[in-house]
Design brief:
The structure holds two protein chains of two kinds. Chain A is an all-beta fold. Helix content of chain A is about 0%, strand content about 50%. Chain A contains no helices and eleven strands. Classes of the chains: A mainly beta, B mainly beta.
């Protein structure tokens, strides 16, 4: 019962560095999402995908990029890390209907110093 | 676009006392409503959802929420809380044919003995 798996769980980056947050799901879900969670702000949608090869911007996409080459994987790329990107990042997936619950990973805690 | 307001950021409560978490939404079209729970250092899990039909929905662990269209609310209640209910609770909304969720800022519930 792996569900949605995110790696790494924690990371500290220096300003200007780049990294990729990994997300994989084993439920054959078409829809996948990336959120960031900041204290008192709830979750904000960064990018989403409705299937392999299809991605689109969410509410806060600036500074991030995504790709979706397979149904299972949806990595999030930070190209030039900035302190404002310090956050907890969650990946989620849901079935094709979109009304079924989103399944979340345990998050990646990222600090930019 | 739809939005969600959670009226309480922090709710301290004693064990075995009742709790109510308030959620109001804004939307020009019909909505689907969700409550998610986040335990410390974990991702979000679906607690309950309203899609259509009976306006009172229940979870397996004693929570219930009532959809009130006239007041645009979806408040969450539990008649008697346990220490294990300590968590952050998020109200979320989506609309027909748009699978993306909009989240409230969250309510932290702390249950004390």
């Amino acid at each position: 019962n792996a569900g949605v798996t995110q790696t790494p769980k924690f990371r500290i980056l220096k300003i200007g560095q780049s990294m990729t947050l990994q997300c994989t799901q084993d439920m054959n879900h078409n829809y996948m999402y990336w959120y960031r969670q900041d204290p008192g702000m709830g979750l904000k949608l960064i990018y989403y995908s409705v299937g392999a090869g299809i991605t689109d911007k969410g509410e806060v996409p600036n500074g991030y990029n995504v790709s979706r080459s397979t149904t299972e994987d949806f990595p999030l790329r930070l190209e030039l890390a900035a302190p404002s990107q310090t956050s907890v990042y969650f990946c989620a997936s849901s079935s094709a209907t979109g009304l079924e619950p989103q399944h979340f990973g345990d998050g990646t805690r990222l600090s930019i110093l | 676009a739809q939005s969600v307001t959670q009226l309480d950021s922090q709710v301290p409560v004693f064990e075995e006392a009742p709790v109510e978490l308030r959620c109001n939404y804004s939307s020009s079209v019909s909505v689907y409503l969700f409550w998610y729970v986040q335990y410390p250092n974990q991702g979000l899990q679906l607690l309950l959802k309203y899609l259509s039909g009976s306006t009172l929905v229940e979870s397996i662990n004693g929570f219930e929420a009532e959809f009130n269209k006239s007041q645009t609310s979806f408040h969450l209640r539990k008649p008697s809380v346990h220490i294990s209910d300590t968590a952050e609770y998020f109200c979320a909304v989506s609309v027909y044919n748009d699978y993306k969720l909009s989240f409230g800022a969250g309510t932290t519930v702390t249950v004390r003995a």
